Amino acid sequence: MPDKGSDLRIPSPSGCRWCGVDEREHMQRWKPPVGWHTWQPPTLDQRKERMRARRSRRQSGGAASRAANPLAS
Ligand SMILES: [Zn+2]
Fold it and tell me: Cα(71) to centroid of ligand 1, in Å?
């Protein structure tokens, strides 16, 4: 389970290609520029980009755990 809020802005890799909402909770949504739509599978590029965004966020969040820098002591 992700921390609350940590993935808030990053859609799940399999989320809707238009709005990023997961298929099981999608139903119909309104989102520009497509307007009302049903869940559509994301493109391969979208999946890659979302996974990359999640990975980079996890790494930047883990930077604080490197506070014990051997060079600084
Ligand atoms: Zn959608």
Answer: 48
What's the Cα-to-Cα distance from 44 to each of 18, 51, 64, 73, rounded to whole Å?
A: 13, 11, 32, 46
Q: Which domain holds residue 24?
A: 13-48
Ligand 1 centroid, distance to 39 Cα (angstroms): 5
- Residue 1 has a pLDDT of 47
- Specify the number of domains making up the chain: 1
Q: Is residue 68 part of a domain?
A: no
Tell me whether residue 29 is in a domain.
yes
Q: What predicted TM-score, i.e. pTM, was given to this entire model?
A: 0.63
Q: What is the pLDDT of residues 6-15, one digit of tens each?
A: 556 789 999 9
